[in-house]
Every structure is written in C-alpha cells, then in structure tokens.
User: Fold this.
Amino acid sequence: MTASRDWTIPGLTIGLVVMLVAGVVLPDWLLNILNISFSRALAVLGLMVLWRTGLISFGHAFYYGLGAYTVAILGKELGVSEILVTVPAAMLVASTVGFFLGFIIRRYRDIFFAMLSLAFSMVLYGILVKTEALGSTDGFSVPTPSFLGFGAEEAADNKIVLYFVLCGIGYGAALLVHRYLQSTLGNLSTAIRDNEIRVEYLGYSVAHAIHVKYVMSAALAGLGGAILAISLSQVDPDSMVNWTISGELVFVTILSGPGSVAAPFIGSVVFELIRTYAFEWLPHAWQLIVGATLLAIIFFLPGGVWSLLARIFGRKEGER
Amino acid sequence: MSKTWQTTKHVALAAVAVSAVALAGAAQAKERISIAVPSFLSGPAAGPFGVPSRNGAELVIESINRGKLPAPYNTKGFAGAIADPIYVDESGGNTKQVAEYRNLVQKRNVDAVIGYISSGSCAALAPVVEELKRLTIFTVCGTPRVFEEASRTYIFRTMAHATADNVAAAHYVTTKFPEVNSYTGINQNYAWGQDSWRDFNLTMQNLKPGSKASAKLQFPKIFAGQYGSEISALSLDKSDLVHSSFWDGDLESFIFQGAVRGLFKKKKVVFTVGGTASYRLGKKMPDGIILGARGPYGVLVRDRKTALNEWFIKAYKDRYGVFPSGPAYQYGQGVLAAKIAYDNAAKAAGGFPNQDQVMKALTGLKFESFSTNVDMALAGGHQAITEHVYGLSKYNADTGEPGASDVVFFKGTCVMPPDGVKSVDWIKGGMKGAKC
Assistant:
C-alpha cells in the first residue's frame, strides 16, 4: 500500500496553483461553471467517503439544502452575508443535524440506508414546499456575499473572489479527507465494506466509524450547498433538496470514481460541461445525453473518470 | 521517450481544447442579432405550454425577419437586423436556469432573452439579469414578485401578472353568476397555486362580502396526475363554485377525471389558465366551464376581428396545424415588443441602436399587439397591463371547433394594481384606484 509513492498531496497542490492562475484568465461563464462544479464536488467528496464504506445515500440533498437554506435565511432574516460567518454556520447546522440523525441511520445498511436518507430529505422538501414564508417552490434570493467585510461593487468581481475562496476551501477539504482516509479510522472504510464482523473483532466499533463518516459527509454536503447558494444567489427546494438532486450527487460520485480525493472535483467539472453542452446542442433531449453518459461510464469505466486519468498517466492512484 | 511524447501530446491536445472552448462565443456581425427563447421543451409542461410558446416565438421572429407581419409592423428585421433565435429548455429547476442564463449571456453572447414560463424561473433569474445587464423580456411567468421585490432596469414583462387572472375571475363570477355565495378551490401545492388561491379568495371577499370560502380546500401535489379523492371531496363540498389555477398536464387530467365523475355538472368551475386545454381537448372539453387564458389570448379571442389577430391565427394554423393557444400569443407578443423597441430606438438614434437605447424605447411603450393593446404602464414602464377576459367553454358542433360564449372583457386598470402598490396590499385594501 505504501510501496508506490503517494502523489495526492503534491498533485492537489499543483492543481490548486493551476486553478488559481487559470482563474485570472478564464472567461466569466467558465468561472461560473467551475464555481457550481466545485460546490457540488464538496458534497460528492462526502459521498465518496460513504461509498468507500459500501454505503450509498440517496438523500444527501438534505444536507445540501440545509447548508443552502442556512446561508439564505441568515442573509434574508438577519442580514448576515459574510462568507466567514455564513459558510461555517451552514456546516455547523448540517453536521449537527447529521450527528443526531446519525444515531438512527448508522444502524442501517444497503438499500435501507439509501431509502432512509431519501425519506429524511423528502421530509425537508415537503416542509419547504409548504412554507410560504420561505418562498415555497419559488425559493428566494440570497444577498450578495462579502468576504472579510469586503463586498465588491461589481458582481463579476464577487464571482472571482468566490472562486478563489472556493479553490482554497476545496483544497483544504480534499487534504483533510485525504488525511482522514489514510488514518486508521479511514482505512477501516474498505474493511467495513468487506466484513463488519471482522472489524468488530479487531476492536473497532463499526457503528461509531459509520457515524463519523456520516457526520463528515453531512458537513461537506452542507458546505457545498452553502457555496452553491452563494454562487447562484438563489435557493429553491427543487434545485437543492429534491430527490433528483440527491440522485445527481450519486451520479457525479459514480462518474468521478472513488479512486482519489481529487476525483470528485474533476468528475463534477466533467459533468457540468457535459450538461452545459448537451443543453446547448440538443435543447429537446439533453437529459438523454446525460443519461447515456452514465450508462457509458458504468459499462466502460466502472472506476469513473479518475480511472481513465490514472490509465492515461500510467499510475495507480487509489488502491481500492 | 515515447511515453514522454505521449504525455506531451495529451497536454497539447488538452490546451487546444481549452482554448477552443474559451474562444467560442466570439462577437458577431452587426446586421444580425441573436435572441434566446427559453421555454419548456421537455417535461410535463412542454406539450400544453412549452411547444406553443416556442412556435409562437418562431412564427413571429421568422415573419419579422422576412418583413411579413401585417402593417404597421411590416418592416424587415429588428431595426433592420435579422434575428437568429436560440431555443433553450426551461426545465431542470431554477438553479439550472440561473446557470444556463449565465451561459446564454456570457458564453453564447445573445443580444436579448425573450421567454420564461414558470414564475419560479423568473423570480430566480431577476437578480441575475440585473447583474449581467442584458435586456430580458419575461413573456408568460406570472409572479408579481419580480417587480415588487426591487426595481429592475433590464427586465420587462409584456403581459399582465397573475394578480389580474384571479381578480378578473372574481369579477366574472360575481357579475355573471350572482347566485354564487360560497366557493372552494383546488390548486397545486406550490407557489403558483398558493398565490392564485390567496388572490382569488381576497378579491371575492372584497367584491362579495359575506360570501363563504370552504374550509376544505384541496392542495394536491404538482404533477400528481390522479385526482380521484379530491374530486370526491369537491363533489361533496357544499360550495357553489370551484376555483382552480391548474395548468400543464394536471389541468387536462383533472378535466378528464372530473368530467366522467360529473363534477362539471354539479359545480360551477373556474379555471384561470383553462384556455390552453380548450384546443387540446376539443370536444372532450365540457361546455360551461369558466375559462381564463391569463389575458386576452387563445380561444377567448378566437373571434376578435383585427388584421393582426386574423393574420396570427391563420399563419399559425397553416404552419403548425392547430389554433394558437395563450402561450403562443404571449411569446409572440414579447417578440413583437422587442421589434417595436428596436425600430423606435433606431429611429431616435438615427442608426442601429445600442441596448440602452432599445430599453429606453421599450420603457412605457404602448402598442397594438396581436390580440390586444399593451401598455407598459407599471413598475416604471417595465410591467405591462392589458385588458383581461373570461368566458364559458362552448364546443361548436357545426364547425367542429372549440370556442367560447359569454365572453366578458375587463379593463387592465380594473384588474391590475396601480403603479407602486404591491398587489396583495392592493387587494387587501379594497382594490383602491381600480377603474372598471
């Protein structure tokens, strides 16, 4: 396992530098696509951790939505738009809720885990749709964010500030998750997936390990949702909490592959580009292209986009 | 060696691809403009709403490009420029629409965006439009929030907003059916349905104090499709009238299921967006349903004999094989408003106008559209008022065509709030300043 050198951290650092430099020259529309992709990638990163443990959640839009609505409500009701306040608050709300629900959900596996997550997310969806004060299905707008008390006059400048902040957050999150996956608890992921009883005999609590992963994925999804809300300046239940969004997160997780913590970021950008171009070229049938892509990935690239990159660069990254 | 070469090749290819992507959306020649037309092209709203919308826009854009509209709009192009339409899908959720709007403006570099059906899309897009500063004409979406939340510079809406639908419905009911003393409602459980019911209920309480709203209102989920239990509940309800703002496929399902259960014989039913179902259901549409079409459009203006209306109906029927429903008119109207603004701005500027000049020409514009006169009177000249109309569905067995009877027109100033007053406050305050 440690025989081949781990290129993840230098790779991520190079990636960060490239993205930061690129941010200065990329056109606005591409920056916007990257902002949306990276927000989603944060949630996918959390799902990847669960997936490595053999768990798939069909309800992580729950935490995505909690994060998004926390930022939006803070802005709307309290007039707080400081990223350094709203984003940690969103993470806190998502991880607190995740912590309590975790006591229930850690007892379930497989389809029951997936469906229970789905049920929680649809409860939140139902509540939001019935709440006229929060704009019901229309949602409401999120005020322009400020960073360190500094709010740009021009919205375009805000986009680029947000992009740099997001690159930093993405880098940090990927590093932390990578460190976690290399720790003993993280390494238990595959072991739990393969045989829980053995893990228990090794002296570890499976329920506890899953609980930790679940709260972590909730916090990451909340973080992703918070930044998505800021980036789009709008929240609504159909684009943030509905089961279709949970499905989209799972889709991107499969598309990315579990090979590396960098995979969700690459996979998410690929997904957004496919969707944007399918939408542009085939306005009547863009969903068909997106669906066909997923089929193609499952058939030909079961390890996701990451396995393709690993093959091209002739290196075995993730050791599953 | 060969391995290094391989890697270099990949990097080079990637660099070429990235720069190609970055260059896409370069500037275009002056004698052409591009107009994005978003509407539902997939999903349950595509059939009754999205496709007629797209067709209405397509017909009018192409006719303008060839100079084939009736006088006085028979000049060629938009200030002489030929418009290239880009039809895009409105489905996929509000945040998707926000992202796609950015692509339209920043990547595909369109000169104007004319469209949008869902109130959710428009509410979500409003701040983004103002941020990206591109002329955007909302054609169908109904929520009054667009202009009530903030003043807008780059957004225009060329039809009346949803308040008019329900205020006019209440006027029609109280004048035509004075015996109606109690009413209930079935509306989809989302913003549109909730707002529609609130406006109708408040207006009824104003126009007919003492009339009674049922305690058992039905709010099924949008796109539910099955209404067995709701229809039973409505049939058993003591109320004289049923109000519904159903649209899309739900409207048609509900009419089918209600008709076989005899709901329309037992109750007076008012559909504020029922006009679109008329042409689609043909003789399966029961007679005597109170129909609105979100303004003077579609089946309710079938018999209006103006040159523009007769041209629109004939050209649309010849091309698409069906009569134009409300959304076709409403999208056509948005495109026509853009043409007039471009032409007027060009006249004032003495050359091809820039966006500010076009917007100035569109602000407060009054013009004759296909089926009605449009006055951009509200929200500082950005929000249109038009007359409104309700009628009863009536199938014409002789011609085999759907039609309407007992059609009543209401003045725009009667059903829309005056400038600067929020619509809910206006209705709650007794609709002061209404000129009927």
